[in-house]
Amino acid sequence: MEAGLALLEVARRFTHWHVLKHSSSSKPFDLTVRALSSPVLSAVGERYYKVTAEALRVCGELVRVLRPNFETSMPDFRPYVSPIYSAILARLANQDQDQEVKECAISCMSLVISTFGDNLQKDLPACLPILVDRMGNEITRLTAVKAFAVIANSPLRINLSCVLEQVVSELTGFLRKANRALRQATLGTLNSLVVAYGEQISSTTYEVIIVELSTLISEADLHMTALALELCCTMMMAKISSQSVGVTVSHKVLPQALILIRSSLLQGQALQALQRFFASLVHSANTSFDSLLDSLLSSAKPSPQSGGLAKQALHSVAQCVAVLCLAAGDQKCASTVDMLKGILKDDSNMNSAKQHLALLCLGEIGRRKDLSVHVHIENIVIESFQSPFEEIKSAASYALGNIAVGNLSKYLPFILDQIDNQQKKQYLLLHSLKEVIARQSIDQPGNLLFIWFFPRWLLNQEVPKIVKSINRQLREKSIKTKVGAFSVLKELVLVLPNCLAEHISALVSGIEKALTDKSSTSNLKIEALVFTRLVMASHSPSVFHPYIKASLALMSYMTIFFHRHPPPVDACGRKKEIWMESIHLQLLPCHDEIPCPQVDTSTKLSLDTFASHLRVQLGAAAMDHVLKKSLDFLITISLKLSLKCLLDARLLRWRRIDLSRARWEARLALLEVARRFTHWHVLKHSSSSKPFDLTVRALSSPVLSAVGERYYKVTAEALRVCGELVRVLRPNFETSMPDFRPYVSPIYSAILARLANQDQDQEVKECAISCMSLVISTFGDNLQKDLPACLPILVDRMGNEITRLTAVKAFAVIANSPLRINLSCVLEQVVSELTGFLRKANRALRQATLGTLNSLVVAYGEQISSTTYEVIIVELSTLISEADLHMTALALELCCTMMMAKISSQSVGVTVSHKVLPQALILIRSSLLQGQALQALQRFFASLVHSANTSFDSLLDSLLSSAKPSPQSGGLAKQALHSVAQCVAVLCLAAGDQKCASTVDMLKGILKDDSNMNSAKQHLALLCLGEIGRRKDLSVHVHIENIVIESFQSPFEEIKSAASYALGNIAVGNLSKYLPFILDQIDNQQKKQYLLLHSLKEVIARQSIDQPGKSELQESNVEKILSLLFNHCESDEEGVRNVVAECLGKIALIEPKKLVPALKERTASSTAFTRATVVIAIKYAIVERPEKIDEILYPEISTFLMLIKDSDRHVRRAAVLALSTAAHNKPNLIKGLLPELLPLLYDQTVIKKEMIRTVDLGPFKHIVDDGLELRKAAFECVDTLLDSCLDQMNPSTFIVPYLISGLSDHYDVKMPCHLILSKLADKCPAAVLAVLDSLVDPLEKTISHKPKADAVKQEVDRNEDMIRSAFRAIASISRISGGEYSLKFKMLINNILNTAALAEKYNFVR
């Protein structure tokens, strides 16, 4: 079917071209009509709904082709209007058919009416009511709405007077529907109808529509908002002199527009529509420019609750002000500019928000209009550069640039002159210049050259061969072959839309045969029709005119045929069916004779006569059957729906329900408006109670009334509104304004009624619970007498599994109230229930329970007994586990809170020590412990040391013992040892200076006495000293630095690393004493230099981590550090160079202005090691979080990354690593450089013989590949770029030859290549399919590779990993649609599945 449709499109475009070429003769057109129209109209009557639907779509394309424009009469379409209209009307009137067919019939009829309406004036009164009726059917409603948009957009101005009022009324009702797509289509259709028939629609109808539009304007759906505002503008322009329309817009839509303009989300189409709305409104009757301008400027004022507007919102206001001024005329615009200049002169130091908006408005007006008539306006703006507020300076720069756009000849030289002469203002002036340049590229984009994409160009060269081959396949007998041929043609048209313009004539016969041959299956017809539709849609109409068949010739033939072969007079039942089938069989052999029937036109029966003949002889049902069987020669039948049908009782009931639903939706929307307006209005008038009283009178009654509604969605929304009202009534607890007390009782009573009612929807129950918790937490001091009746209900809701979670959170809200609500009547029961919930399987419930218990303990801890605490603690001990660190953190936090609440209770301390402490000591040994859980564990030990019946010494011993190696698991992981050390440090600091000092002395003793006997003990001692020293100055402990540095001599690497860490962290506690010591040691102790540099790295890293953007390092120390580090850039030891690079990178985060130029200068160093080190330093300076170095590095990063073409491989690898880090952490830094960098990066993936050397080891020789690490890094970089910068890459240029080469490379290179191939198969399947055959060989060699017989276990494991990696890539490729057409890949898959060992591995990874 798809192939058939595409072929029809090819035929259509070629015909159009052929007809225009031979416009002096109608013969080519007639010939082509004979070739195509008959099978298409025949297909409209097919039984199989998919064929019918596609045929109707093709008819739509035929309509467009017959009359491609309305200026010329070529080709002469009039003879074909009636047959097409009749065929489609029969389908449109038939309700007993598939939904897809109904929708296609509606769409096709709308095209017919919009294209041939001037030739169908008499038929429209019969057809249009059917379309209106389809709008009443929920299934076809959306399509019917779109159909009327097509008709309204016709340049023929179709006469819709018989249905216009009904259509507009129906559409207005649809604006209240929940279906978003329907509302969008309705807005578009109403807009088209107003444009075309606005004068025929009454002002009253306009007002009704405007009221509905006001409910659609919201930041929640900006696309819908844009459509609503567009329609509003169209109606104002259509009724520009109507006062009532202007009043309705001002009262209903304008308030919503002023709320919308404050949104930071407003942009694009919605913002443009809002600008047009204000421009239209200023011309509308009963609207004043001055009042509109005041409303806009007032909307930008800061509100008490949300503060000032976001930057985007201020720009939106400024743009609307500018559009409004220009729409109002030169005089109003000039007065507005003068007013804004006055603000800048008089208000420069008093109201920054007002000045900010004035500058933005001037900029937006200046961009649209020349302001040179306002003398010295540029000087007034530039004076704002002196403002102390950064936003004012930025706005002034923006304004100056945009004013210059309005008159470049005057203001651009001024800006350039100022840049030269005003050094202090240079930065802002350059931003102004940037605005000027940016506007030239945005407003007047340059002409882009069309560039053929190379693979597509190659494919285009092969199209003639493809078409020739496909034609041969279409003549085959095999149905599958024909279906495949049309599938190929369909894909060809999708890839190269205009490629078949010159080949339509070669394909027409194939399409025709596929649609008319007796042996054609439904699947083949569908493929042919889909292809025809695609071709028609993607080619010019002129291509197809020569191939449209003359339908009237078929009509004439059919008329005579039925006249000569009438049915038997007594035909009925089975006889009639036999006659019908015989008619069908007789017609098919005659089909080839249809183009040239030898019939005198004077003897032809008219269509009306023929229709009457059939109705008399057969009856309506039999006639339909015959027409379907006889190549769908459809007769014009007038089908009129009676008024009784339209007023059917069931339909009325359905409409009544529909209107009821719409009413609920409208009320929901109004409730939301009420909530937001109340919030804004109350806070705006917080200094006066009068406006507040007015607002409450206006809103509280309907909101509280809505709480009692039957429809659950209204009730739930009303309860949410009540929650907002509560928050608004008492926004803070310090002041008594506004006076909320009169409204507490009504709100409480309304919510209590809902809370107490159990027979209601779950959503209502949850909203009632949440709202009541807000009421109690906000008005609890005014509800003391009512709480004993309300609180037990909330406790009861905790026992219900459906409302349990909401009720738990409700008590957290109450407990967090600053009013300290009296919960004595239920507190014990609440805590008991919550304790039980800690045993539940529901994770969300346990999390909420822990948070609520924590809040209750903080607020009412003294009222909860120690026994209850002990029960809770027992439950908490079961939640502490590395399996759920978030839950663990919450449990430990609650434990700390309880210990602080009962600090003097011995029983609580004992319970914690016996139940929680053992779990904490198990947890601390976990290598997964980090983040929030680790911090909570540290606070736990700090709290525990203050708790009764707990000893510091026993806690310290327990912590140190937890770090001992266990027989079964051996020593602790590095992360676990660091966790123990941090907890020891926190414990010591919590215990006080004396305990801390004794602990440090004990740790020093371990280092002195145990340096060569117990490495694990010494390792932990060093880490503990480092953690304590980072938090506390240890300079009172004389020579502690020398004791630590002695551990550098240890034979154990982990001891030396821990000593280096400890020394660096001790220095953090007292930089002035220990940093000079470390720097001096680096200069004098060459053997310890590497470890000392690690200590220095710890010092520098702590400055950037603990105090980002700040540093305690003195200027002199920084200079000394930099001098030392730059001296060691040339070190022969790679480890030293890496540490130096990391140090430089961390300092660059602290002092970017100093470091980036210094690093850039050294990229030109003659020493390769120095160049490599500075590039690696940049790698460490590019971190995920935003840093001040980013803006300094952005213009300079190319200097570092271009070292990828350096002559030294170490430098190239460093540049590749830096590029990979930038692509991962901050891709925007490098996206603009990728066109130049990618070819250089790809070059690093190539095996280079000059980098392979042979080492003679005596009895045997060893081959060393010095480029292996570089190739591996390059492929890993490509892998990262595919994740972050795919839009900047062309995968095809990388796959061949670079990826294919990598797939045959070393094991270390193959692994990232397999990962890249998997990603490309998912993200760029077409590029992979294009070279799939080339990928098969290296993949097959990889999965077939076997290690040597004497290979060690490590080599065997690596080979298995490589095979699994290759299988993952193969599995990804197998999921690509079309991969099965590669014979080599198909053979590879079959080979894998037929080999037991390979199949098992493949199925495992798949």
TrEMBL record:
Gene3D superfamilies: Leucine-rich Repeat Variant. The keyword Zinc-finger does not apply. Keywords: Repeat, Ubl conjugation pathway. It holds the Pfam family TPR_CAND1. InterPro entries: ARM-like, ARM-type_fold, CAND1/CAND2, TATA-bd_TIP120. It comes from the Eukaryota. One of its GO terms (biological process) is SCF complex assembly. Residues 1229-1390 form the TATA-binding protein interacting (TIP20) domain. Belongs to the CAND family. This is Cullin-associated NEDD8-dissociated protein 1. It comes from Zingiber officinale.
